[in-house]
């Protein structure tokens, strides 16, 4: 049976980290909320699960695999990893992969808050001044700190610096690709500069983009373009001069 | 060998979620950064691990257990749970417990950002106005949304509403206790009101506080008092009138 991915239609958002793993593995999945109500899909089908499940996810994305329902992006990937062949073999390395993924999660929250530093109940336009201050801090302090960490852990990988964990592709590699994509969309000048100092991150990003299934996916209609409703938004005023 | 917990001394912070699990289990652990440099402990010992480890944690807290080094609060608890007898038996329930813990993590980030909405590089005093706006949103929208979710999942637990997962104590119960403690310290009026509408959460909180080892711990010097350097801070102006 196909995996069912539930996430808000119209944005890449957190769902994209799961989508990339499903696409790389080449498995069947239904992107439920992007489907049509007449097929029993769509946003209402998603909200129904959130309202009625015995283990209701706090928020999307969540995944249904038969009887298993799991929310939280990093937990979804932890669950899917072994099934998709995208997780390391040893328990210790699986925990390390998960720890990396949770650090990706932290950065995603901070990226979101650059345009919504005060409240998600308000529009960006109602918190633009605060967003500019938060984004300046994010560009100056936070992105470099995270990028340096990713570069360091690539450098220290005893199996080589082509992957975050071990000698082959695992799901955190795909998520790091997506982080670089998203941050480069939101803050192109900042990222262009930073990627020069983090060549291993840049190289992993490029290698992922060239993987056949990822390449096909990125050119398909399944890949929603970045836009200003998502987590990574390009507001030129947030990148300063 | 004793577990080694690494976290900033002087605050409960994220380390406290791990401490509560270790204390409830009654196992030996060393709170490394709170120790003395002449014993090879203290902050420098912590920073050394962060700077030199093959798998360096992005941030504290992290835990060392022999050869295993693991960071990210939720990942530490996922690792420790089975060893401490604080995790459910089935794989599905373990994933659910972890998912709950990751939702606790999300709320902790938001609690922190009420006093630091713009930047952790600035003092609270330099972002007081923004903090007041973010805190108002947090009190009005976010705490209720999370509290309602915890109440709902207690209510829907097929094994009864005394615990979040199954019929006995697991680590997310301890973390929910700590959330209620912290939020009640930071926003006492808000929480007093909300706990009336979430009686299952209130009751679980009280039950945890009466557990013999937790009670002893809370009265010990090992429990650092809440203060205005931690994640949960009491600034009366952030609770409004």
Question: Would you write up a description of this structure?
Answer:
2 copies of one chain form a homodimer. Chain A is an alpha+beta fold. Chain A folds into 2 domains: 3-84, Glutaredoxin, CATH 3.40.30.10; 91-211, Glutathione S-transferase Yfyf (Class Pi), Chain A, domain 2 (Up-down Bundle). Chain A has helices spanning 15-25, 43-52, 73-84, 91-115, 128-156, 171-186, 188-197, 199-209, 212-218, and strands at residues 3-6, 29-31, 62-65, 68-71. A 4-stranded mixed sheet of chain A has the order 2-1-3-4, with helices on one face. In chain A, β1 (3-6), α1 and β2 form a beta-alpha-beta unit. The first copy, chain A, is globular, with a radius of gyration of 18 Å. The interface between A and B is large, with 41 and 40 residues. Chains A, B: Pfam families: GST_C_3.
């Amino acid at each position: 049976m196909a995996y069912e991915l539930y996430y808000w239609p119209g944005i890449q958002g957190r769902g994209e980290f799961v989508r990339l793993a499903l696409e790389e593995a080449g498995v069947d999945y239904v992107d439920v909320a992007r489907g049509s109500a007449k097929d029993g899909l769509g946003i209402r089908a998603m909200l129904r699960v959130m309202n009625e499940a015995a283990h209701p996810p706090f928020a999307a994305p969540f995944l249904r695999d038969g009887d298993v329902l799991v929310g939280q992006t990093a937990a979804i990937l932890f669950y899917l990893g072994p099934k998709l062949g995208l997780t390391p073999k040893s328990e210790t390395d699986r925990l390390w992969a998960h720890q990396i993924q949770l650090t990706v999660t932290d950065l995603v929250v901070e990226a979101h808050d650059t345009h919504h530093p005060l409240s998600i109940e308000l529009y960006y336009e109602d918190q633009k001044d605060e967003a500019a201050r938060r984004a300046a801090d994010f560009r100056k302090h936070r992105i470099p700190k995270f990028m340096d960490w990713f570069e360091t852990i690539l450098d220290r990988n005893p199996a080589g610096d082509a992957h975050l964990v071990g000698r082959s592709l695992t799901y955190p590699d795909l998520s790091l690709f997506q982080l670089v994509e998203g941050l480069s969309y939101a803050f192109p000048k900042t990222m262009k500069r930073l990627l020069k100092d983090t060549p291993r991150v840049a190289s992993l990003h490029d290698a992922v983009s060239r993987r056949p299934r990822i390449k096909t996916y990125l050119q398909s209609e399944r890949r929603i373009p970045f836009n200003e409703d998502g987590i990574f938004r390009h507001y030129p005023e947030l990148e300063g001069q």
